Amino acid sequence: MTTGSEALTERLRFLVRVVDKEAAHLSWTDAALFGAGNLTLRTVAALGADEVLAERVDAFVARFGRLQDTLGDKLLPALLTALDGHSGPLIDNLNRVARLGLLEDATSWLRWRRLRNQMVHDYVEDPAVLADALNDAHAAVPALVGVARRWADELRRRGWAS
Amino acid sequence: MVTSIPQQDACSSRVRLVLLYTFPAMRLTEHERQAIREVVRDLTGGRGRALLFGSRLDDASVGGDIDLYVECVETVEHPARLAASIGASLEMRLGEQRIDVLIGAPNLRRLPVHETARRQGVGL
Asked: Would the pTM of this model clear 0.90, i.e. be above it?
């Protein structure tokens, strides 16, 4: 930890609390939406006529995106700043945190981010693409939540979060 | 354009025609073109063809997204995953930039954007 550490520690503590909540919310919606397994093409094609399911899909997409953004755009720069005194562009940050053993694969992170554009049911017109994006994001949830847990644990281990 | 080339310059006009055929207008560096070819080949198992369409075909324009159309002749079981993987791999190689990837395959809907991509698309 470097200069300005008190404000940085406070920010890290705040972000860990946020990430904990966002990960829990995503896990809940993920279980609710995919409780019966992957979404079928038929289910996804009928989203326009099922407001309840459409709302749940929206919640999943929003929560997936929110957790990833908080982790990648907020917690990751703060974490790297605490460790090394600086952070950089997202891809550099991802590669750095992967070298530290705190992320399996930087490319997967970018892939998850790109999936998000393909799971907005109001404008993805091919149900095959929409279903695949949602199911792939569902498959990525354990890894994304795992990253949240791993970073939070690392910060707690160093005494930078409670 | 090659239409106004004088008759006495016929030899060089043929050269220019060949060059235009080989290197059609597009604002991509050779490094970018090679990265796209390799990533698409690797992630489609050699069964996808990459075409550039959209604003990067316009030499008079500046910047803009890289719009890629990846045409597959066989069924693509995971189209969203494929598009996301191609985009992510290209971002890793080329740095963060706006790269849109559209997949075309026999099992996917043929939307107006696919027609535009096929009509405009220039092979890489």
From this structure: no
